[in-house]
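Motility protein, pasting as requested.
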Amino acid sequence: MDIAMLSTALGQMKAMQQANLSVMKMAMDNAKIQTTDLTQMIQQNTKMMEQSVTPHIGGNIDINI
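Structure tokens follow.
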């Protein structure tokens, strides 16, 4: 096998590996953002559901002095 051809092949494999790693990092970042957004949406929906089921709780404070 020719040394130049081997060097070229190794360089191409390294470039492909770096590209695959970059794509994987982007996918992981997107998944992390989506997970955070989903968690926030669930928390907001939980608050709205609690208020719709018991709208009278937490709306008024009775204070006697």
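Note for the archive: Residues 1-48 form one domain.
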